[in-house]
């Protein structure tokens, strides 16, 4: 018996005012894999992510986590029961909670029941010395690292990341991307990462899903898309990278 993909999306459609923003989207993400949903602003990336998260419902299509349907016709499993973690660009740490309490937020029993896991995660992003700090005492990069381990703490089967690095200073970004990727690989999480930056996708993805006008126009390994773009627009999109 073969293992089903961690995340599978079949023929997802979502329209607003009769306009399809997500149009027959199909893809799968395996355990340990980072899939980058890449495309220009407004092409439907965040809407796709929201459907997978379960905070929005598609007009039609199916979503499976570990082969089990979480969205299919009338079936709509709520976000908190999908084993899907979320991380957005503004980090949104809880300002009134310390770093340790933020990381433990999604864990049963809170910080007192999960000290070892919280300590281990903070150690891995070099934030142990900030365990009792509050978000306003941290730099943007530090907040980002805390947000990452908070999202990973409950060991979600799938992690969804929407432009997670776009709020960061450019000088920090490459380092944090590499660090994030290393942690994701250690955890073995399946990741769907949304970005409009081709170089970010080239750097982080095992698989790129190139999106335009609600459709996946090409998908495959970064190297293949870069070397053999499906059409002129795809080529133009990758042409800035060196
Ligand atoms: P991206 O994340 O790729 O920039 P989005 O998924 O946020 O794009 O948006 C895709 C399109 O769908 C945009 O034209 C946006 O205005 C539209 N859209 C998104 N959400 C809604 C909504 N709730 N109601 C109406 N239009 C929406
Ligand atoms: Mg978006």
What does this protein look like?
The structure is a single chain. With 242 residues, the chain is α/β, with parallel strands linked by helices. The chain contains eight helices and eleven strands. The strands form two sheets. The chain has a six-stranded mixed beta sheet with strand order 7-8-9-3-10-11, with helices on both faces. Strands 2-1-4-5-6 form a five-stranded antiparallel beta sheet, covered by helices on one side. Helix 4 (140-152) packs parallel to helix 5. The protein is globular, with a radius of gyration of 18 Å. The structure holds adenosine-5'-diphosphate and magnesium ion. Adenosine-5'-diphosphate (ADP) binds next to helix 1.
Strand count, sense and barrel status of the largest sheet are: 6 strands, mixed
Helix content: 25-40%
Helix/strand/pairing class, anyone? alpha/beta
The number of strands is 11
Rough outline: globular
Unreliable parts: none
End-to-end CA span: 42 Å
Keywords: ATP-binding, Cell membrane, Ion transport, Iron, Iron transport, Membrane, Nucleotide-binding, Transport
GO molecular function: ABC-type ferric iron transporter activity; ATP binding; ATP hydrolysis activity
Organism: Paracoccus methylarcula
GO biological process, one term: quaternary ammonium group transport
């Amino acid at each position: 018996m073969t293992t089903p993909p961690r995340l599978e999306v079949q023929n997802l459609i979502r329209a607003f005012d009769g306009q399809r923003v997500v149009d027959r989207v199909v893809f799968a993400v395996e355990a340990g894999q980072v899939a980058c949903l890449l495309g220009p602003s407004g092409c439907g990336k965040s809407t796709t992510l929201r459907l997978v998260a379960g905070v929005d419902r598609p007009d039609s299509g199916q979503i499976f986590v570990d082969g089990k349907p979480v969205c299919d016709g009338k079936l709509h499993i709520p976000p908190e029961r999908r084993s899907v973690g979320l991380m957005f660009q503004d980090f949104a740490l809880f300002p009134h909670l310390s770093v340790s309490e933020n990381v433990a937020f999604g864990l049963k029993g809170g910080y007192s029941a999960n000290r070892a896991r919280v300590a281990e995660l903070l150690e891995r992003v070099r934030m142990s010395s900030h365990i009792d700090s509050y978000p306003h005492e941290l730099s943007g990069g530090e907040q980002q690292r805390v947000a990452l381990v908070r999202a990973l703490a409950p060991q979600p089967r799938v992690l969804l990341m929407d432009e997670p690095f776009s709020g960061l200073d450019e000088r920090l970004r490459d380092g944090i991307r590499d660090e994030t990727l290393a942690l994701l690989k250690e955890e073995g999480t399946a990741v769907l990462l949304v970005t409009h930056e081709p170089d970010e996708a080239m750097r982080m993805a095992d698989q790129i899903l190139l999106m335009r006008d609600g459709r996946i126009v090409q998908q495959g390994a970064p190297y293949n898309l870069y070397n053999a773009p499906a059409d002129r627009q795809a080529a133009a999109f990758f042409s800035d990278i060196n």
